[in-house]
Design brief:
Helices cover 3% and strands 47% of the residues. The protein is mainly β.
Length: 664
């Protein structure tokens, strides 16, 4: 065999003389950058095809992937956003690349940058200028003018330097050449595991289970004869950990399981890098994080937390987003567990393998940016029984169920406005901050809470709720409301539900703009924007705190934050509700504005010592009824339908004030 190729301990083919691109990753202003040959390119993965540099910007598996193509001097030639990209590689003609997007194979021409989608995810190849296409529905291959029937599902496809195309299927493989009849071969040492083209020759590995071992063999074909080049034994039973679970705690809200890191350790202060439903923004994409990021060491081993069957696996060299998904059983509606950010060459399993709790799955890929080495771990369910990263639905906050997770620190409330940890904002104008000494009608309540789970990374809390007290010495509050519970189900991709969740929980405009990436993390929670039913949906987006339900007077507002293991903290603020019209005019504009009559039957008149530039009239549902530009110190408004309204006035110096008015 050629010098250099061999099997590693996990059955993957490695080539020691293979040239790898030497580049460095940086992160700045929500964006990954690649430093290569004195060039700065956007993205976090680089592929060089002849004189073109191709980058992908897959910042997170939950958001779209951007592909960019540069010339050798770093000039951008093409860019496009795809749903999700996996298995990006050059075609054998070096004039196009191929990848999987949303379960379909895509060919992107590197000359005119035209892309073509094919049914199915099976790979493509060129042979003497002919595109070899797999028809997965009819189990045959289009090869030049030939249509060749296949015995089973296609797993991989390679074309060597002698124009032989190898099609690797479940039960056998084929060697095709336009000058000869197709030849079919049976695997000699188990089932197909991996194929690789090295120096123009095709090599593949096979895998079989013998007692407590996986046995991998490296194979090639010479002169129509099969040759076994190497055999590697992987003792997976020896690697298996005896996992420890505790089911006697009342904090486990779903299924008690250990961490996939150190599952044999009774308790451990795992550092948490991101938590469930936590706000994130990379590039221009806003979303909430599905699952939990458990921090680990470079190449730290990852283990299965429960018995199951491998339903989905991505193990592509150089990809930071290699993963394995294991269903709890064979049924179509089974739940399972998702393990993301494994090193491709460390993963010994294949789709269909039966897994036992404690089995070795692989080790963590090195995360160059901020030393963020971690396992992205989630409990998932497939969508319409499609086990693919694009179609998972995350189930609950898995951090609440880690039996060996220890965290002794409570959530923290930060200051929002002046010295207060609680703030109040107009539902009409997100830049208008209301004084806690004079709150009226309807408004939003905001806080800025976070948790630090054994690390310096700010992560989200698990629950938020608030209470209104007339006197803190009373037996109970006069009002209490559940705000948000982060132990919720989430779509993996940015579907319709995700913007609703983002915009309901988090303030993303006005004075308080939430941030969530490697460099900046600030979570501004809109806790009054919830109806308290434990579900975050479109009905929550129009929620607010209605102060007219309470008599004018002094109160204490208390907000509670609880983390995943039950640590709790709270913050208080003394407030005054003042819905009397006299009280409404108590801001610094009170001596300069006259609004009369109020209530009004036909017209309401507005007079001011300062020029009024614009006005907006909003009903109690938060709907804008009327707007207009003024440019005067006085004007009149005709009456609207009977009811209470908020009149927002904008002055020529940019200042804004709001008044409550009533039309009879």
């Amino acid at each position: 065999m050629s010098i250099g190729q061999s099997l590693n301990p996990y059955g993957h083919i490695v080539f020691t003389e293979e040239d790898e691109l030497d580049y460095k990753l940086e992160f700045s202003d929500h964006q990954f950058y690649i430093e290569y040959n004195n060039l700065i390119l956007k993205g976090n993965h680089l592929l060089k095809v002849d004189s073109l540099l191709i980058t992908t910007d897959k910042t997170c598996s939950q958001i779209n992937t951007i592909i960019r193509i540069y010339n050798i001097d770093g000039q951008l030639k093409f860019t496009k956003r795809y749903f999700q990209i996996y298995y990006l590689e050059a075609m054998s003609d070096n004039q196009s690349v191929q990848f999987i997007d949303s379960g379909k194979r895509v060919q992107l021409d590197l000359i005119d940058f035209h892309d073509e989608y094919f049914n199915g995810a099976e790979p493509l190849s060129y042979n003497k200028g002919h595109l070899v296409i797999i028809d997965s529905h009819r189990n045959h291959v289009d090869f030049g003018k030939q249509k060749i029937s296949l015995s089973s599902r296609v797993l991989d496809l390679k074309t060597d330097q002698d124009h032989n195309t190898y099609i690797f299927c479940d039960s056998s493989f084929y060697k095709l050449n336009t000058d000869h009849e197709p030849l079919e071969y049976n695997y000699q040492n188990g089932r197909f595991f991996q194929a690789k083209l090295i120096e123009g020759n095709v090599y593949w590995s096979e895998k079989k289970f013998v007692f407590d071992e996986m046995i991998f063999t490296l194979n090639t074909l010479k002169n129509a004869s099969l040759f076994q080049l190497q055999e590697v034994e992987f003792d997976y039973l020896k690697k298996r950990k005896k996992i420890i679970t505790k089911s006697n705690s009342n904090r486990f809200t779903n299924e008690p399981i250990p961490s996939p890191l150190k599952p044999d350790v009774d308790s451990f202060p795992f550092q948490i890098g991101n938590s469930n439903a936590q706000y994130q923004k990379y590039g221009n994409s806003e979303f909430v994080h599905l699952g939990v990021d458990i921090m680990g060491d470079i190449a730290e081993e990852v283990f299965a937390v429960k018995d199951g069957i491998v339903k989905d696996i991505i193990a592509f060299p150089g990809d930071l987003y290699c993963h394995i998904a294991i269903a709890n059983g064979p049924g179509p509606d089974e739940q399972g567990y998702f393990y993301l950010h494994l090193e491709a060459s460390s993963m010994p399993h294949s789709k269909g393998d039966e897994i036992k709790a404690g089995d070795y799955l692989g080790y963590l890929v090195e995360w160059d940016v901020f030393d963020f080495h971690h396992i992205h771990f989630a409990r998932v369910k497939s969508f319409n029984n499609i086990w693919s990263c694009s179609y998972y639905y995350g189930l609950d906050n898995i951090l609440t169920d880690l039996t060996n997770f220890v965290d002794n620190s409570a959530p923290v409330f930060e200051k929002l406005w002046e010295q207060n940890t609680i703030a109040f904002r107009s539902i009409i104008n997100p830049t208008l901050i209301l004084s806690p000494d004079s709150l009226y009608v309807n408004f939003d309540i905001l806080c800025k809470a976070h948790d630090k789970s054994n690390s310096e990374w700010r992560v989200e809390v698990n629950t938020l709720r608030f209470e209104l007290w007339q006197n803190l010495n009373d037996i109970s509050p006069i009002y209490q409301q559940a705000a948000f519970n982060y132990d919720i189900d989430l779509p993996f991709k940015s579907l319709d539900e995700t913007p609703i969740i983002v915009n309901t929980i988090y303030s993303t405009d006005g004075i308080w703009v939430s941030q969530g990436d490697y460099e900046h993390r600030e979570f501004f929670q809109q806790i009054s924007q919830s109806n308290g039913d434990g579900v975050i949906d479109e009905f929550d987006q129009n929620e607010y705190f209605d102060s007219t339900n309470f008599p004018d007077g002094a109160y204490t507002l208390r907000i509670y934050a609880t983390d995943a293991v039950g640590n709790e903290s709270f913050t208080d603020l003394a407030i005054k509700i003042a819905n009397n019209p006299v009280s409404l005019a108590s801001d610094h504009f009170s001596e300069q504005i006259k609004i009369f009559p109020n209530p009004a039957n036909e017209f309401i008149y507005i007079e001011s010592e300062i020029q009024i530039e614009a006005f907006r009239l909003v009903n109690m549902l938060g709907q804008t009824v009327k707007t207009g530009k003024v440019g005067l110190k006085h004007f009149q408004l005709p009456a609207e339908k009977h009811g209470e309204y908020l009149l927002e006035l904008t002055f020529n110096d940019g200042k804004i004030t709001t008044r409550s008015i009533i039309f009879n």
